[in-house]
Amino acid sequence: MEKTTNLKLILAYDGSSFVGWQRQASGISVQQVLEETLEKIAGTRVIARGASRTDTGVHAMGMAVSFHWPAERLAPEKLQRALNALLPDSIRALRLARVSSDFHARFDARWKLYRYRILNAPVADPFRRESVWFIHRPLDLEGMRKAAGLMAGRHDFSSFAANPGYERSTMMRHIRRCEVIRRRAGPPFTGNEIHVEVDGNSFLYKMVRTMVGTLVEVGLGKREAGSIRELIRSRDRKLAGKTAPAHGLYLMWVKYGPPAGN
Q: Which of 69, 98, 127 is the last residue of a domain?
């Protein structure tokens, strides 16, 4: 059996044309494209394990991936160049390095940061139509910030989770930070680009997008910021806001280190 070395890859991708990270029965996934490219280079099948199952249309700026690579083949720096030469322009290999043989990008992940981008402006930006959620009505940012603060902590997040089609051992998650940040939209467009950043140890199916959809309802005056406490206690998805569109969501980074409960 050929000797292998374990590699950790940091990947960025535009999720617009993919069914998500994970292989699906129908549609092209980022995992499929990456594995097929690695197999083309290695001449043998390579299984890539991603840190997160990003959904259809969701983007990544820092997806962590691990895979065992034939040790006698290309060194990491040459493999990175080969990947970027063969992968579609919508996927880029940012960094590649050797890691311990037992490292697993998904199971060893401790914290993840997701960023959701909202363009709150009178006129939509046609150049960002697949990268931000456009909302023309003014948003109450202070109300959204108050509501976001109530989402932080260790809670049962059933109210914000969609049914993934498989059994989950627990609905408890630890959110270290949920923050609403305002940035100017930039000329020629007036208004603000609002970032909702959610930093947590793990996420349920469509959880971040439902949190964002609920925060937007607060921003539009459709619900009170303080109602988030009762919403969390209810554990009822029907009481939360709508799921925000996938194209505004980005996986920013994945961190490894001490256990996530620490």
A: 98
Q: Has 14 been annotated as catalytic?
A: no
Per-residue pLDDT of the chain (262 residues; tens, 9 = 90+): 578 999 999 999 999 999 999 999 889 999 999 999 999 999 999 999 999 999 999 999 999 999 999 978 889 999 999 999 999 999 999 999 999 999 999 999 999 999 999 999 999 999 889 999 999 999 999 999 999 999 999 999 999 998 876 677 899 999 999 999 999 877 777 789 999 999 999 999 999 999 999 999 999 999 999 999 999 999 999 999 999 999 999 999 999 986 544 3
Give the CA diameter of the chain.
63
Instruction: For residues 13 and 55, give the distance between their C-alpha atoms in angstroms, rounded to a whole number.
Output: 12
CA distance 107 to 114: 18
A 10 A CB-CB count for 222 gives 10
182 DSSP β-pair partners: 194
Are 129 and 75 contacting, i.e. CB atoms less than 8 angstroms apart? Answer: no
Only one residue has tokens 């069914």, namely 19
Look up residue 146 and give its two tokens: 């108050």
Q: At 76, phi and psi to the nearest 5?
A: -50, -45
What pTM does this model have? 0.94
- Look up tokens 């990270």; give the residue: 21
Choice among 14, 55, 102, 140 that is catalytic: 55
Handedness of CA 51, 55, 61, 67 (dihedral sign): positive
Identify whether residues 137 and 84 lie together within a single domain: no
Question: What residue numbers bound the domain in which 53 lies?
Answer: 4-98
Residues 119 and 227 in one domain: yes
